[in-house]
Write a structure and sequence with these properties.
Helix content is 30%, strand content 28%.
Length: 316
């Protein structure tokens, strides 16, 4: 079984949640139906959104998709699988570039007691011991009178779907929780966090029910990922992220073309990598097998170590 290393702050919050949860004795229980709402914020995820949604068929009662300015075929991919989905699907648009506003919009559209903040590049296991259906049964069997914040464990791919980042192979965040009227996503530093009442009891899952595609994305997606948060701070001066990247290219990268910037940032932030070993991490979810057999790009080795990627050749 994989072990995930939590930070000191996460551990402190975890242990304090046990005595704090005693205050739930004075809190009214949630009146929502004991089902599972999945909220998905999506922008330009045409490669993975269909498989991601299909993998939730035996898990969700409803899935709320909030499309945030997708410019690719994401919505077309959703439409293609719509008839295959067994749950209620809600698709709405939110044009704001404020991720907290997008998240709070998605949160407001949910109707079930349990809420799972699902990323559009998460792929769930749909068979075997890791079947996400088992996670559903676990959640719905918990005491309906209590409030929980659940930290599931996932493996995050890096660079391609055959590697993980050394030292950061797994990830665990409070993706799952009970609905409460005080829930709200707010900015904290460069990132967003979900503010929950102090008396929510934290549980950690040791089983892996889904994987995260992570940085195993096309070149332009890596470029946007690296500069997204910096762009948001300068959005008044640069209406689009492409405008901002062009500016950065001129000001700080001596007019280096964006593709070369992405490759340089890839090597700086994603390396070092190590292979995704099935003996350690388990097999891939069934929904990923087509991509595994015909990957769009793969890591290139040099002197026995990960060095670059097959689609970076023209920029190396």
């Amino acid at each position: 079984m994989l072990k995930h290393k939590y930070s000191k702050k996460q551990n402190l919050r975890y242990f304090l949640s046990f005595p704090a949860s005693l205050f739930q004795l004075f809190v009214a229980e949630s009146k929502r139906k004991n089902g599972i709402s999945v909220m998905v914020r999506v922008r330009d995820e045409e490669d993975w959104i269909a498989g991601s949604l299909l993998s939730l068929n035996e898990f969700a009662d409803e899935v709320v998709v909030v499309n945030n300015n997708s410019a690719d075929h994401t919505l077309d991919e959703i439409e293609k699988v719509k008839k295959q989905l067994k749950y209620k699907l809600i698709v709405e648009n939110e044009t704001s570039d404020d991720i907290c506003q997008v998240s709070n919009r998605a949160l407001s559209l949910t109707s079930c007691r349990w809420i799972f903040r699902w990323d559009s590049d998460f792929i769930a296991y749909t068979s075997g011991e890791r079947n996400i259906k088992n996670l559903r049964e676990f959640l719905l069997a918990l005491n309906p009178k209590k409030y929980y914040l659940i930290y599931p464990l996932t493996v995050s791919f890096a660079g391609d779907i055959f590697h993980v980042k050394t030292g950061k192979e797994t990830n665990s965040e409070g993706y799952i929780h009970i609905w409460h009227r005080c829930l709200k996503y707010v900015k904290k530093g460069k990132f967003e966090i979900l503010k929950v009442p102090f008396y929510f009891k934290i549980k950690r899952l040791k089983e892996i029910y889904f994987v995260h595609i992570g940085s195993a994305k096309p070149l332009h997606k890596l470029l946007y990922r690296f500069f997204w948060l910096f762009w948001l701070k300068n959005i008044v001066d640069f209406p689009t992220i492409d405008d901002f990247i062009a500016h950065i290219s001129h000001e700080k990268w001596h007019d280096l073309e964006p593709g070369k910037i992405a490759v340089a940032k890839f090597k700086e932030l994603i390396l070092p990598l190590r292979k995704f070993e099935k003996s350690e991490f388990g097999d891939y979810p069934g929904m990923m097998m087509k991509a595994v057999k015909k990957p769009k790009f793969t890591i290139i080795y040099k002197d026995g170590k990960p060095f670059s990627r097959s689609d970076f050749v023209e920029f190396d």
